[in-house]
Amino acid sequence: MAIALVTGASRGIGKATALQLAREGYTVAVNYHHNIKAATDVINQIIEAGGKAFAVRADISDEAQVLAMYDSIDREGETLTALVNNAGILFEQSTIENLSAERINRVLATNVTGYFLCCREAVKRMSFKHGGKGGAIVNVSSAASRLGAPGEYVDYAASKGAVDSLTTGLSLEVAAQGIRVNCVRPGLIYTDIHASGGEPGRVDRVKSMLPMQRGGQPEEVAQAIVWLLSEKASYVTGSFIELAGGK
């Protein structure tokens, strides 16, 4: 079977996706930034269930680390056919008056530049013109790209707007090279990222505002990602799946 790289796979949506991809038979490259214990826990769960996985440490905002990560994947001896661009960061809730250039640039470096770098290296390995056998990429955006996240994370929302544009443009650029590129837009999902924004209980605070009256689970997002990567979605590219409870 082939390799699927999942960035930010040690927690939340990335972890749920890694576990599901392993069940589908992929060898999963579990990317993490700093928490080796969490990444090891994911790998152990996969192996205990009879799957295959290995860890690849990289800060995706750093080009040299992305190159090293892909080099380590190449050494595994299996073909990379799937990429899930999931790693992302946000900072404490803030209005625009209190956003610094440093914060904005850090968000964009990971959430935008990091996605571009990972896509670039994946295309070099998957595309027909580079001798690849094709593949699929799923970018994890956010409902914030549509809604703007006013008063909380306008910088994060803008970074996800860039991810949407990347998805559209790249899907057209590599469609004839055997690569499908799609996107999921999760809404309020129960993950640790809300703690980074200073409000761990954010989903429970605002879930009553959603048409479905509840937050989503990482596994619900993972199922959509795994479908988009699968042959069941073989004629789907440049598409967006909303996973936001109707909002």
Write the layout of secondary structure elements.
Elements: E1 3-6, H1 12-23, E2 27-32, H2 36-48, E3 52-57, H3 63-74, E4 80-85, H4 101-126, E5 135-140, H5 144-147, H6 154-174, E6 179-186, H7 193-196, H8 202-206, H9 218-229, E7 240-243
Helix pairs in contact: 1-2, 1-9, 3-4, 4-6
Keywords:
247 residues; alpha/beta; Rossmann fold; 16% strand; globular
Describe this structure in words.
This protein has a single domain, classed as 3-Layer(aba) Sandwich (Rossmann fold), CATH 3.40.50.720. Helix 1 links the parallel strand 1 and strand 2. By secondary structure, it is α/β, with parallel strands linked by helices. The model has no long low-confidence stretch (mean pLDDT about 95). The chain has a seven-stranded parallel sheet, with helices on both faces. The longest helix has 26 residues, at about 100-125. Helix 1 packs parallel to helix 2, helix 3 packs parallel to helix 4 and helix 4 (about 100-125) runs parallel beside helix 6 (about 155-175). The protein is globular, with a radius of gyration of 17 Å. It starts with a strand and ends with a strand. The chain has nine helices and seven strands, in the order E-H-E-H-E-H-E-H-E-H-H-E-H-H-H-E.
